[in-house]
Amino acid sequence: MVGLRVISGLLAAIGLVQASNIVPGAFIVEYEEGVDIDAELSSVQDVASTRMKLDYKLFKGASIRFHDADTADDQADLLGTRPAVKKMWPVRLYSVPKHTVHWVAGDDAHEEDAAETRQAPEDTFSPHVMTQVNQLRDQGVVGEGIKVAVVDTGIDYRHPSLGGCFGPGCLVSFGYDLVGDAFNGSNVPFPDPDPFDCGGHGTHVAGIVASQTNNPYGIIGAATGVTLGAYRVFGCDGSSPDDVLIAAFNMAYEAGADLITASIGGASGWSEEPWSVAVSRIVENGVPCTISAGNSGDEGLFYASTAANGKGVTAIASIDNSVTPALLTVASYTVDGGAEESLGYTPGQPSAWAGVTLPLWSVNYDTTDPSNACTPLPDDTPDLSEYIVLVRRGTCNFVQKLANVVEKGARYVIIYNNVPTGATAVSGTAVPGLEAVAMVTADQGGKWIAALSAGQNVTVAMTDPTTAEKSLTLSPNNLTGGFLSTYTSWGPTWEIDFKPQLASPGGLILSTYPTALGSYAVLSGTSMACPLVAGIYALLMEVRGTKDPKTLENALSATSNPNLFNDGSTTYPVLAPAAQQGSGLVQAYDAAYTTSLLSVSSLSFNDTDNILPVQNFTVSNTGKTSVIYTLSHVGAATGYTLPGDGSIFPAPFPNELLDDYATLEFPSGTSFTLPAGQRKIVTVKATPPAGLDAQRLPVYSGYIAINGSDSSSLSLPYLGVAGSLHSATVLDPALTYLSSSLNINDAAVSANHTFLLPPPGHSNDTEYNSNSTDYPRLFINLALGSALVRVDVVPSSSDANATESVGLATLGDLYLTPLEYQPRGPQSATWDGRLSTGEYVPAGFYKLAVRALKIFGDRNSADDYELAETIEFGIQYIGASSYKRADRVRKEWSA
C-alpha cells in the first residue's frame, strides 16, 4: 500500500467574475451548415469585433469579442438564440504543460552543416531502444513521405539538425505563425507566414520527431524521413487561446497533414470543450492526433487534460528515460597529488570558475544527510575562503545552503547531487560574497567524500565554463528508468472515458533546442513523450500502409508493455494503474508487424451507477497461418480517488493503492482457434472488486492478455469505478464563502457586512479603484469536476423581481455565469453587483447561492445540484443612498 498526503488551498483570481483562464468578453461561435459566416459577422459588428474567422471543412465558425465587457454575457445570450448559431463557448487560454529543463548546451556546442541524413546509422538512442524504434530504423524504416504537423511554439528550422531551412524541399516544409512574437494569449495576435520558434519547446518537440543525425551528441529523431509542419500558437511567452488552437489544427488538417501532434493542455476532464471537440472531428475524419496527457500527476486521479481528453484523441503519458543524459563542462582533480582525473560539472550562477584551483573541503562525510548545510555551520569551522566547499543537495533550498557556507568565508561551492539525474544548474546570485557555484553528479560527489573521509587531500582544478570542453555523459537511471514519470497526469475523464491511451519516454530527453538558446537541451514532460509517439505513428504508417487512427492506436495499445508502479523512489510488485500508464510502454516494432489485431484500444466499465458489465471486442488473425489464442487476466493496482480521512478532495500523488482486482469472465471460453484471415468476437464480463470503500471512488483496472501460439502477446487495458460518481460530493460548502477585496489574507467577512461598490458601470474607472471601494469576493472550491456551475443572487426577503431558476428563487446569475465544464479545484470571483443580463441589482441585502451540477447529473433537475450559500451581506453604491433595479443594458443588433 502506498502512503498518501493531503494538500488543499485556494487560488485567488483577479478581476470580475470569471475563470482565471477565460478571455473576458470573447466567445467561439460555431454556425450551422450552410450559414454565410461573413454575413453573420457583419450583423454583429456594431457590438463585437471578429477575433478569428474559423471557416474550415470540419468547423464552421468564428471567435468574436464584444466591445462592451459590461454587457458581453447578455449579448452572448442573445447571439446564442439566433437560428444560425449551433453552439457557443467562452474563449479559454491554455499553456505549454509545465516541464523541467535539466540542462541546455552552451554557445560553444559544435554543429555541423545541414545535410541529408534520412538514412541513419545504427540507432542506440535510449528512448528508441526502450520503444523498439531502433529495430524499425535498423530496417531502414524512417517514416518516408509522412507529413507530421507540430502545433506548438514554432520550430527553429534554421537549426542544422532540423534541416536549416523552411519551405518546400526542407525538413520543415509547411506551417504558419498564427500569433506573432509579442502575443501572450490576451493581446491581439499578428500572424505571419514564418513559424520560427523563440521559446524552445516546439524545437525540442520537433527534434524528438525528426532530428537528423548531424549533431555532436548523437541525437536522432524517431522518424527522420518525415516532413514537418510548424503551426505556431504561442508568442515568446504566455498562453494560447482555444480559438487559435482550433484554427491551427484545422489548418494542419487542410494542409494535408497525415498526423497532428501537440504538447499543450490544461486542467479539465471534459470532452465537450471546443478544442477537444474540434480535434475529435479531425480524428473522426481519418487523421490521428496525439496530445500530451499533462504534467499534473501530483493532483492524483481524474485529472485528464484538454484536448487529450477528446474522444478518439490519443493521450500520451510519460515514462522516465532508462539513462540520464547530462552535458557537463570538463575540469580535473587530483587525490594526494596523484594522477590527474577528469570530472564533469554544470556551472551555475555566478560562475567565475576560470583559473580556480583549490583544495576541497566538505561540510560532512555523510552521503545520506538530507540537511547538509541547511543550518549554520559550527563555530570551529575553518576559514573557507581558500577552499572549494563541497555540499550535498538536500531538503532545504540552495540559497540557504550557500548562505550558511558563505557565512564562514566560502567563495567557491560545488554541490553534489542526491539523485542519479545528472547535475543541474544552481542559482546563487542572491547570496552576496559567492563567486562561483556548480553541481556535479551524485557519483562524483560520492568518490570525493570517500577520499576525504579516508584522510586524503583532493584538489580541484576548475575551468572557464565559457570556453571549456563539454562532455555528454549517459548515466544509468536505476531509480525510475522505465517506470511512469511521477508528474504524468492521471485519467480517467469525468465521464470515465479511458485516458491516457499510450505511454513513452518523456523524462530526461535529449533533443534539439533553438540555436540562440544553446542548440541542444534535456527536458522532461509528457511534452517529450508525445512527439516520440507521433514519430512512431509515422513509422507504422510506412510499414502497415494505413493512416487510420483506430488501426494504429489499437496496434500500439495491444503490443505495449504495462509496467510496475514506481512512486519516484520505490518500485512496488503490482502493475501501475491503467489510469496512469494507459496501455503501457509502446513497442514500435511489435506494433508494426503484429498480425493479430484487436478492434479496440481499451475498455471502460464505467461506474457502479452506469456499469457496462458485459462488453465485446474482436480479435483478428491477419496472418497466413492458424493461431490458437488463450485469454487471461492480469489485474493492476486499484487506486482510491479520495483519501481515507473523510476528505471530499482527491488525494494527491501517490494515491493509496490496493492489490484488489476486478474479476473477469469470458463466457465463450478462454481459448479459441482462428484460421488465417478470420476474426472472432470475444465477450468479457467484469465484476468490480468487492470489499472496497465505494465512497472513496476506487478506480480498478487491469489487462486482458491475449497470447497466441505464434508467440504473439497482446494486452487490452480496461478500467472502471467501484463507486458512484453521481453520489460523490462535488462542492465543498465549508470553502464556499465571502471575503472582501480589501482583505489581503482572503479572510471571510462577518454576516451582514456591507460592501461599498462603484456606481453601476464604473467598476473599471480609476477614480473608484481605491481602498474605500469594497467588493465582495466569492471563493468556491470544486472537489470534483462539474459540467455546470451556477451562481445566483438570492434576495434576503421576498422580491417581486425574483424568478424561479431550476428550483431556486433568484434575481439572476452573476456576470459571466453559469460556467460550463469546470475542472476540480478552487476558483474565486470579485463582484460589482452585475448580473449575467448586464443589469445591476439594487442596493440591499443578499446571499449568493452556488450550485454545482453533480457528475452525470441532469442540469434541468434541482435535485442534481449541490448547493452552498454564503452568509447574508449588503451592498451599496458610491454616490447613491439607494439604487433601484437597472433597466436591461444591452444593444440589439439587426436580424
UniProtKB/TrEMBL annotation:
Domain of life: Eukaryota
GO cellular component assignments: membrane
Active site: D152, H201, S527
Signal peptide: 1-19
GO molecular function, one term: serine-type endopeptidase activity
Domain Peptidase S8/S53 residue range list: 143-566
All residue ranges annotated as the PA domain in the record: 363-427
C5a peptidase/Subtilisin-like protease SBT2-like Fn3-like domain boundaries: 604-719
Gene3D superfamilies named in the record: 2.60.40.4070, 3.50.30.30, Peptidase S8/S53 domain (3.40.50.200)
Key words, A-Z: Cell wall, Hydrolase, Protease, Secreted, Serine protease, Signal
GO BP annotation list: proteolysis
Record InterPro entries: C5a/SBT2-like_Fn3, PA_dom_sf, PA_domain, Peptidase_S8/S53_dom, Peptidase_S8/S53_dom_sf, Peptidase_S8_Asp-AS, Peptidase_S8_His-AS, Peptidase_S8_Ser-AS
Family: Belongs to the peptidase S8 family.
Protein name according to UniProt: Putative minor extracellular protease vpr
Source organism of this protein record: Diaporthe ampelina
